[in-house]
Amino acid sequence: MAGYKAQGNVTATYNSNAITAYINQADTQSTLAQIDVTTLGDTGKVNIVDAAEWTINLAGPWHPTLDGYLAPDAVTPGTKRTAVVTYSSGSSTVTYTWTSNAEIGNYQIQAAPGAAITWSATLTLSGAPTRTVA
């Protein structure tokens, strides 16, 4: 099975602002917690899966325009915006959208003398995304 390169095949928006030019990483993750429901009558451990917890880890080269999009919400806890990330194979595109359910967490600006300034953030997402394929 062939893999697809991210450059040109991934886009991201936050609060209707295109941030694709400022990212070199956009990892979407769904974590499913296992809940132990074992009872005394069971002969082995019994689990059920909890609801998915979604996050998007973003990173890339820092720019003042990007900072203007993210920093105001990063310092205002509880601010939820719309986030959209798309992944494309070239022939089809999968879009994940969280409408007014994305909150910025762990916004960081990394800078060292003589090195490029970079940034990273985790979008903490409430609820499941709307997923479309085109």
Short overview:
The chain is mainly β and 134 residues long. The chain has one helix at residues 64-74; strands spanning 10-14, 17-18, 25-36, 47-61, 81-88, 93-110, 118-125, 130-133.
Sheet having the most strands: 8 strands, antiparallel
* Unreliable residue runs: 1-5
Beta-strand content: over 45%
Which term fits the overall shape? globular
Specify the helix fraction band.
Answer: under 10%
Alpha-carbon distance between the two ends: 21 Å
Report the mean per-residue pLDDT as an integer: 90
Element order, helices and strands?
EEEEHEEEE
Number of helices: 1
> How many β-strands, per DSSP?
8
User: How big is the Rg?
Assistant: 18 Å
- Class based on secondary structure composition and strand pairing: mainly beta
What does the model show?
The chain is mostly beta strands. It is 8% helix and 54% strand. It contains one helix and eight strands; from the N terminus they run ββββαββββ. Strands 1, 2, 3, 4, 5, 6, 7 and 8 form an eight-stranded antiparallel sheet that branches. It is globular and about 65 Å long. The N terminus is likely disordered.
Set down the secondary structure blueprint:
Layout: E1 10-14, E2 17-18, E3 25-36, E4 47-61, H1 64-74, E5 81-88, E6 93-110, E7 118-125, E8 130-133
Antiparallel strand pairs: 1-2, 1-5, 3-4, 4-7, 5-6, 6-7, 6-8
Descriptive tags:
134 residues; 8 strands; 1 helix; 8-stranded antiparallel β-sheet; mainly beta
